[in-house]
Amino acid sequence: MPAPKDNEVRIKIYAGVVTPSDCAFRKADPFMIRLIYGLTKPKNVKQGVEFAGEIDEIGHDVTLFKKGDQVYGMSPNSFGAHAEYLCLPEHKVLFLKPTNASYEEAAAVCDGATTALTFLRDKANIRSGQKVLINGASGSVGAYAVQLAKYYGAEVTGVCSSVNVELVKSLGADHIIDYTHQDFTKSDLTYDVIFDAIGKSSFSRCKSSLKQTGIYLSTVPKLGTLLRMAWSSKFGGRKAIFTAAGLQQSKENLAFLKELFEAGKLKAIIDRRYPLEQTAEAHRYVETGRKKGNVVITVGHRS
């Protein structure tokens, strides 16, 4: 049982999520992960970043929270969310969860919605009336990207497989492209923003589908994207952007998403639930690449 330091709270975790990033951290793929999180083995033996739970103990100096507060948040530096308890400093990315959200829904929103918000609002400066294409619109990031793009007034095109067309429509997409029948890069249509929420396309493939001042966003740091970022920062034109969204989150982002969820403007998308003891199975399912929305870990507690 971890004991909170003076400036920390201890969270009794009820839900977490398994993401493609969790799988990447576990496998050290791509290799650069080893340079940050451990060369031969993970520095942090407990995995997991996003969570929701209840504060059951506070340190002597804590003023922002009290015992019994229901919270959701992230631990991108030290991990540890795939566990029964987690201690975090009170100033970290931690906030009261939406009052109408279950712990599972709160953890799910904390995953994909925070990433989508960082890319669309902060990096692309999304505006009303823009045409936005979301590649991977049924995934954990894409499903929230569709909802947030609609919230900001964009005309949204979602790219997904046949089996997920109805899901993406229900999220508010104005247009659907079934990638099993149509390649959006071969169309004459152009977009202000193309968000590759699964990292399976590339700037070079999408370039002709961008307007002259268009922006390509990717959740995967491919070399071509990084080179284009450097080029456009000096010479302008179409831009490509990658950012480590998990390291740029804040209490303010969680507060904003809480408001949207409570107002019914954002909903959680949960594909499967696994008990903590079956986290390995959750990893295997996420690695199939076929999940819709979030894969949630549920944590039971002995009384």
TrEMBL record:
SMART domains per UniProt: PKS_ER
Cited SUPFAM superfamilies: GroES-like, NAD(P)-binding Rossmann-fold domains
Domain spans labelled Enoyl reductase (ER): 16-297
InterPro entries found in the cross-reference section: ADH-like_N, Chloroplast_QOR, ER, GroES-like_sf, NAD(P)-bd_dom_sf
GO molecular function terms attached to this record: oxidoreductase activity
Alphabetized PANTHER family for the sequence: ZINC-TYPE ALCOHOL DEHYDROGENASE-LIKE PROTEIN C16A3.02C
Name of the protein in its database record: NADPH:quinone reductase-like Zn-dependent oxidoreductase
